[in-house]
Automatic annotation (TrEMBL), chains A, B:
Biological pathway: Amino-acid biosynthesis; L-methionine biosynthesis via de novo pathway; L-homoserine from L-aspartate: step 3/3; Amino-acid biosynthesis; L-threonine biosynthesis; L-threonine from L-aspartate: step 3/5
Needed co-factor(s): a metal cation
InterPro entries, alphabetized: ACT-like_dom_sf, ACT_dom, Asp/hSer_DH_NAD-bd, HDH, HDH_cat, HDH_CS, NAD(P)-bd_dom_sf
PROSITE patterns registered for this protein in UniProt: ACT, HOMOSER_DHGENASE
GO MF annotation list: homoserine dehydrogenase activity; metal ion binding; NADP binding
Organism annotation: Thiosulfatimonas sediminis
Coiled coil: none
Protein name per its UniProtKB record: Homoserine dehydrogenase
Active site, UniProt feature: 205
EC class of the enzyme, as a word: oxidoreductase
Lineage: Bacteria, Pseudomonadati, Pseudomonadota, Gammaproteobacteria, Thiotrichales
This protein's record includes keyword Lipid metabolism: no
Protein residues bound to L-homoserine: 190
Amino acid sequence: MKTFKIGLLGLGTVGGGTLNILQTTLTEIKRRIGHNIEVRIIAVRDLNRARSVDVSGIQMTTNPEEVVSHPDVDIVVELIGGTSYAKDLLITAINNGKHVVTANKALIAEYGNELFALANQNNVIVNYEAAVAGGIPIIKAVREGLAANKIEWLAGIINGTGNYILTEMAKPGADFEQVLKTAQALGYAEADPTFDVEGIDAAHKLTILASIGFGIELQFNKTYTEGISKITAQDIQFAKQLGFKIKHLGIANRTASGYSLRVHPALVAQDVLIANVDGVMNAVMVKGDHVGPTMYYGPGAGAGPTASAVVADIIDIIRAQSQNIEDRVPGLGFKAEQLAQAPVEAIDQICSRYYLRCSVNDQAGALAQISAKLADFQISVDQLHQEPSLEDSEAVTLVMITDKVQESVLNQALLALTSLGVVDSELQRIRVADLG
Amino acid sequence: MKTFKIGLLGLGTVGGGTLNILQTTLTEIKRRIGHNIEVRIIAVRDLNRARSVDVSGIQMTTNPEEVVSHPDVDIVVELIGGTSYAKDLLITAINNGKHVVTANKALIAEYGNELFALANQNNVIVNYEAAVAGGIPIIKAVREGLAANKIEWLAGIINGTGNYILTEMAKPGADFEQVLKTAQALGYAEADPTFDVEGIDAAHKLTILASIGFGIELQFNKTYTEGISKITAQDIQFAKQLGFKIKHLGIANRTASGYSLRVHPALVAQDVLIANVDGVMNAVMVKGDHVGPTMYYGPGAGAGPTASAVVADIIDIIRAQSQNIEDRVPGLGFKAEQLAQAPVEAIDQICSRYYLRCSVNDQAGALAQISAKLADFQISVDQLHQEPSLEDSEAVTLVMITDKVQESVLNQALLALTSLGVVDSELQRIRVADLG
């Protein structure tokens, strides 16, 4: 029995949760691994702040440099967030030969390539299970559990705030602004909700999932990102009538010549299991060529779930200590020299079905004109729904689901439709995700 | 780059699927592990049988002993099934210092304790991801992904045949016998469906899940097993009216003084995600004390999914070769000497809500008599539904959901009810699984 020593950067929600697990569940963990784990030193901002966890006997410091350079520390756990100082600290930790665990999705998505390269040079491990979908062991499932597969695609509800908002907006009388306020009051959304609502947080996670699924470098800057702030309660109701739910998804799939990485709202057929994942819960579907469709569901945030993933990473590092370095699970699941180079395609290269909503003057022939114009672009309409406009008694609201079409073609068609003058400029366009 | 050599026992559905992956996906797998995998020898029953997989260049034998004793073979993959000859072969393989991968749930559930002990003595690994829920990496999720948690309970749809039958029985006009015939025609159920329909297959899997969840020895003989053959289409309809679906579940939970291991039909509230897992698909919920509720979903059977798990096990063994033996993930997820000894309790010790259906004579006071008798045993009724009997115009069918009660107490109450003479002897009783 060896004792492995942890240096903790940060003692906020997740840091406190991590310390709590290592105190309350240590006996159960020792039954599993046959080794001891000790939190040796913690860097905090304020030494005098009252804590809900017991830090007696643990060295406390306000200087994070002390943690990443501490001679006793085997594993540095970074839970302070941000991509600037956190990155510098982890670079020092890695150069000092420390293994690293982080829950920092932004850091991995934006700087993971260089961190993994540096870790390889220093023969240490960088683990990040908590960075995607909180407590769900999705990184392990993709990097190891499905390692016999060529992953065809991944699609996930990977931002709990967004999923909570869309779930609540499906209830009668709810609208985006009002639901967002409730989410903020409940602590599900930040005062500035941009990161969650505009899809940036989900894009960080999707970037990571795509890399470990396909064996490609992290390419956050090529991940298309669209938020949910333009989705209306009316869209959710129309989608429902057509047999769909609207979910904010991160989707990564292979294309003819490369990959598509994207975060956007999408219609999902009601009978697909992930369409029924509601509230703040997360779920990731992974389609492997041999296994077929699988799904992983659980809480995507919170002290306990996130810390559960952090401590699982610590356990994995402890077990991998004695392994030959080349036998360890690589940072992105594939050997660094084997990462594929195929391009991430622009969003307008995807093929998808589309939900279209527009308002047209209630004049005979408008529908015929629209259909004809779409037909000019070889776009056929799968489902059609029409109802009187709520705002304007002269107009009708037209809702369509198109057949599959390349987005660049659809864009041209929509432009043509708008210049035709039959539809208003506020045409709503939402992609359909076919996950069957 | 090393080449690891596989000896395959059996080339049926899963054996063929495994060979197929190791041929079609080897390039992708090598990108992950940096080692080569070669199928060196395969034992089959009939050398001359036509195969859908290419066996050219692979030594074929009808003598399985040759595989488990072959000097070149590093890993023996057992896919012949059964618990007698398969066990003998794996004992020889282990004694010969071979690592073992098996998809054989009966073998692990019934003889795993001695196989893991023998493997420990011989410093080899026995992996069995494919034994539970086919392609879903549930063994890895519980043994590793959730290793920071004390697992509170597990509940799973772990037999695709049973889930298919219950799903189809929910459709108008379907009954058990007729749906079973369809399942047999589609190849989802065996000619003798006992193993699936009476819950034995699910009990094997639940036994394994309970062991890795709680860190207890495999105790198949103490797993309570009840099948679905007594569930009627009427029960499914009544359950639906009360807000539930009926699923065949394997459930393992902690009790006041030990554990409960059981397979039986159960009512699950419609808004719990697992209630919406339909057809032949499998799903396992795992509740950890820190992570909360998580769920793992995917195909539970078939060549591709099962082989996906088999090959993931091979990859794990290859990666663990260089690891100190004491650092490897233990067979049951916990160190052998740390397995807990608390008892598995008899089924009548569980506390549950219950669905009760009975036929009563349409006489004033019958309901009052029943309620009074239940009240004598401190059992209160949560939900009540009454409708005219289809068969007997003099009678009504009464459906109740009780509050939580110990099953031994419920049994006494039901006995008292029957002897009262107001209800018929064909009283239906189905447990409610509260998985919220």
